[in-house]
């Protein structure tokens, strides 16, 4: 005598248990047998996405670190000559009497441009996020304003 029977639906992944009732078998419960498999697949997908995000973050951090190293190198190699230029222009402005206005404006412009170079190198040292913009077709450059805290070093 048959006391129960199971029905399996392969396409839907359901298993149904029927027990004998007064006149016929009654459906007692339905179990989705693939629940564990689906859950495991979702966990694997989540772990894969997490690994992908970690990898992207690692690449991003490596890029930022490379930018900072370049900035330190530029700072070391460029600031010494810039300091000389700044000091010489300051010396000319202070000691040379009788410089015409065009010469004074030119020396002040040199000082302003040297100051901009100092500022740019300083900003590169404080890059926290390497945002790029297109400089020329197919050539990108770092957007210093977007890549540093509040756009300032």
Please characterize this protein's 3D structure.
This protein folds into two domains: 5-33, no CATH class; 63-151, no CATH class. It has 153 residues and is of the alpha+beta class. 59% of the residues lie in helices and 19% in strands. Strand 2 and strand 3 (25-32) form a beta hairpin.
Distance N terminus to C terminus? 85 Å
Elements, N to C (H/E): EEEHHEEH
Helix content: 55-70%
Largest sheet: 3 strands, antiparallel
Structural class: alpha+beta
The count of domains is 2
What is the percentage of strand-forming residues?
A: 15-25%
Write a brief structural summary.
The protein is an alpha+beta fold.
List the helices and strands and how they pair.
Elements: E1 5-9, E2 14-20, E3 25-32, H1 35-95, H2 101-125, E4 132-136, E5 139-142, H3 144-147
Antiparallel strand pairs: 1-2, 2-3, 4-5
Helix pairs in contact: 1-2
Task: Describe the structure using short key phrases.
153 residues, alpha+beta
